[in-house]
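Two proteins follow. First one:
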Amino acid sequence: MTETATPVQQGPVPDFGVRVSSGDPRYHRIVDWLHDETALLDGGHTIAWTKLIAEDIVYRIPVRQTRLRDDTRSQFADNMFHYDENHTTLTMKILRLATTASPWCENPVSRSRRLVTNIRVFEGTTPDEFTVISSVLITRNRHSESVPLIMSGERNDVLRRDGSGFLLTRRTFLMDQSTVGFPNMTIIL
């Protein structure tokens, strides 16, 4: 006699609101913004990147918790974070890494590459805001290492229209790993 496994529900499918079609010009402007942001970060232009973040930004990377299959609680802690930053703390970290000699962990500088894909855009709660869900793969290499370190996850962003562009007002990175595979978290995800 064989046992039949009962399907496990992972919770409700998230509802992000009204989807912005990939044929919509707003979608293309947002994807262009994401590509430009990635180019700044991959090029090490973190100080220039700070011009893309809103004064009221919330930037978080919650700790992932490994749960058994039938455990219906969230896989992410709501009170523990690798990053839990606002505009001031995020800018201070970036300036310290970019302008001082003290961050030995980034001397020599890491080489990183961000691959942003599976981009879905949703209208926000206000006409000038958009929720952007994407998959991100980040590679990082230091010194003369022959094998890059890899991190992947889902990014949940909120972008606010600002003039002819956008500002990042919220970013939550949901890592696929339960343990950070990088020796330190000094790169912007």
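Second one, unrelated to the first:
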Amino acid sequence: MATVDDATRNMIRNLEDKTGRSLADWASLARASGHEKHGQIVAWLKGEHGLGHGYANLVALESRGGLTLDTPSDDGLAAVFAGDKGGLRPLYDAIEDYVKSLGEVEVSPKKANVSLRRSKQFALVQPSTKTRMDLGLQLKGVAPVGKLEASGSWNSMVSHRIRLETAAAFDAEVKAWLKAAWDAA
């Protein structure tokens, strides 16, 4: 499940994509406008610059003292692998190390899983039981074959899943599917 911080990070990325200005640029512009109250800044941004309410609110918050976003950290990973799922952490570490060897990747721990992103999510790592990890992959249009199965109702954020029970199961076939998903993102 996505968090408020994830949604805010997406808005920040989308703001620059849609307007050509970063959040910092918009916040500087808002501070220079002479408006001091949050509602005044929102109204000014909407009226003078055509921003939607959500983006105007985001800029107003930033211009009046900044947003506070949690930074994903190893603490998030500790929560994912807490309790009897701790034995799966070395398998997860091998997956993360491999993905990072491919190039830039954003690792975003959630409560029950870890999202791996480039420009979009391409993989989801989730300890499903104390002895099995599910690796969800976004591979639209690819037929299930070998270890790669359709995700079905397991998770709607990915198209396929691979069940891993040992570190040895993270083999060349799994790495090839993971790289294909990384490439597609």
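SUMMARY FIELD: The longest helix spans residues 4-19. The helical segments are 4-19, 23-32, 38-49, 53-63, 74-80, 89-102, 172-184.
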